[in-house]
Specification:
Layout lengths: L2 E7 L11 E6 L20 E4 L1 H7 L9 H8 L7 E8 L13 E3 L2 E6 L2 E6 L2
Antiparallel strand pairs: 1-2, 1-4, 2-3, 5-6, 6-7
């Protein structure tokens, strides 16, 4: 399964000098094989972690991954909301993954990937 990575400024009050971290979603095993799956909701499935000092400060690191609500709580330490720099879909080096990602939702925007480009639409 692929993972989703957001390069962010975590804006942590507890670590003001930490201005970069990668926020990584690690999905649960695929619900189906050799066919399209339904939409996967990264806010309710899988686990999350932060790289670098942000992972250390929040306790949401690759060793002790968090649920999305736990990660949101850890990032909400009184400072400004985190800033997203980039979003990427990736895959580790363990096994090959061939597939597609569609309907990527970031906050209230859904990115629909089509052959002629990416369309955006507002989520409900």
């Amino acid at each position: 399964m692929p993972n989703i990575r957001f390069e962010i400024n975590p804006n942590l009050t507890a670590a003001p000098a930490t201005t970069y971290s990668t926020m990584v979603w690690v999905p649960a095993p695929s619900p189906v094989t050799d066919q399209w799956s339904s939409y996967l909701d990264a806010t309710t499935t899988g686990k999350w972690f932060l790289t670098g000092n942000a992972g250390t400060v929040t306790g949401c690191n690759q060793t002790t991954m968090c649920t999305f609500p736990q990660l949101k709580t850890a990032l909400n330490d009184g400072g400004p909301a985190p800033t997203i720099y980039t979003a990427a879909v990736g895959k580790g080096r363990d096994k090959m993954w061939i597939g597609a990602v569609d309907g990527l939702r970031i906050n209230r925007t859904i990115y629909d990937f089509e052959a002629d480009g990416v369309r955006t639409r507002r989520a409900n």
